[in-house]
Amino acid sequence: MDAGAAGSVIGQWFSKVASGFSRGAPLEAGWPVLALIIAAAAVLTVPRPVWRWFGLFVTFVHELGHAFAALTTGQVVKGIQLRFDHSGQMHSMGRSRFAAAWTGFWGYPVPAVTGAVLVWAAFNGWAGFALSAGALIMLAALLFIRNAQGLLIAFGCATVSVLLVWFAAPPVVSWVTLAVGIALLAGAVRDWLNVLSVHTSRRRSLQSSDAFILYQRTGVPSVIWLAAFAAVITGAAAAALWWARPA
């Protein structure tokens, strides 16, 4: 493919991205369909072999949450590392104690909050906006990845987003947005249970827990941070359920 053809393809893709920012038809789904999607989300998050792969996407969203939280406090994001064992790390530059705590908190709750927002978008005609914005965020995030495993994970997620923008028809976009939103909510619960197990039965991995790191930074006990994570995740799930209820 020559430069002219490549430029044409890129231009067409950005045109599709731009078209996604307009509002479309709200999704309508009854409880039987929602139950099927919830069951599919369980399949992605409960069996270990499947979670091994879907959990990489949840981890990516988790670390992006840290990055966005850092930006909201004026910190400079230096890079993100992702690993195949579902661990990750976001490096930022800033000295404020509050900023460090704020940034450290917005990891585990972010997949749930993102999932709830996607559910809202699907049922309010903004699925295209969510997909276009998500694709741009995924592509931009590639600039901040600082390790080979992370690059593979981020590139895979970005590729799926790019292909959905290119090929998915508006009705499909709405269903995909809803399904990804519910799956992220389920993934947030699975991730929270994982970090809880670090504090109860796998304490040798304690140094990797955001709750423990926040305790070290603030002196507030890890159990408080775990409860705060759970509260946000529960609130996001409740909001998603409310928005998804059939009219």
TrEMBL record:
Keyword Phosphoprotein: no
InterPro entries in the record: Peptidase_M50B-like
Keyword Nucleus: no
Keywords annotated in UniProt: Membrane, Transmembrane, Transmembrane helix
Chain ranges passing through the membrane: 29-47, 98-120, 126-144, 151-169, 175-193, 223-244
Domain of life according to the entry: Bacteria
Entry protein name: M50 family metallopeptidase
Organism: Arthrobacter jiangjiafuii
